[in-house]
Amino acid sequence: MDAILLTPGPLTTSADTRSAMLSDWGSWDGAFNTLTASVCRDLLAILDAQADHVCVPLQGSGTFSVEAALGTLVPKNGKVLVPDNGSYCKRIVRILGYLGREAVVLPHGEQEPADPARIDAALTADAAITHVAQVHCETGTGILNPLPQIAATVARHGRGLIIDAMSSYGALPIDARTLRFDALVAASGKCLEGVPGMGFVIARRATLERSSGNSSSLAMDLVDQWQYMQKTGQWRFTPPTHVLAALRAAIDQYQRQGGREARLQRYTENCAALVSGMRALGFKTFLPDALQAPIIVTFHSPPDPAYDFSQFYARVRDRGFILYPGKLTAVDTFRVGCIGAIGPDTLRQAVAAIAEVLREMGVRRLA
Ligand SMILES: *Cc1c(COP(=O)(O)O)cnc(C)c1O
User: Looking at residue 329, what is its pLDDT?
Assistant: First the structure.
């Protein structure tokens, strides 16, 4: 049997989702164009974004779509405020550097949610800032940023908001009718539980229409991708046919299982089973519960000299579970994902496997 991926993408998918990849599709064929259109329609509906937004899918991992959204929507003389409380925020800053778009970093601690009051002050202080780029759930730690308050602040200042909702889209509530944004970016292989390989940008139609000529990359130009798709029903360039077919199947299951609320409920149960089991063993979480999104949990590594992550990882892997290394520089941590086609029993089994491995390794001091 395949190992269970307790990683936030790629993640464990269902047999139905994997089986959807057993057919080949012609990219010019009407049936494939229908598939693309139906997926885009459903991706918009998940945010109730049909009125003012369009869905532009893009080949590649999620970062490709983040880069495409920034490069397409931020004009060459734009200036982007990036509230930074983790590694995916820092990735946005790097992307802006490559794109030659000016970035203003608003540094936060990694245990500190992005602060709407500081964003407000930064926007007041600098009228040249055109956009805010905000990560919703910062997957580097698992912290949840207060998106509704941040969106309201950005809207009050009349600036553009670009949201990296990669690890929250489909599970955490985001309603485009009440939360104003220019673009929201997510991907096939996260909370929708598809396979990795394509991202998508839910972009405000009026903003996208005004964004021709911003992108200095052809492959990453969302205006060009969207206009071509509008005209032909097809993707520009070879589409990720099997990924899209798997995503269609994954969305069908998502809808059958009760949609976003049911998805959040299952992830919340997964997270609770994981955290309570790990705390019972003696582990400490990096974040207090109030800041923790039910997506991925960061644990402090045991301070015991018998502990070694690569040993620990390999032994837990031998028992069928793939863990994730930490992404923090200052403290030694590891991460465990709560998302994927798994339920709380799987997380309990993972905790039991971790307990066995710690005994085997002679690790006693956990915090
Ligand atoms: C997964 C993820 C991304 C995209 O990462 P890829 O490795 O390109 O798939 C971007 N932002 C966040 C918050 C993520 O969780």
Answer: 75
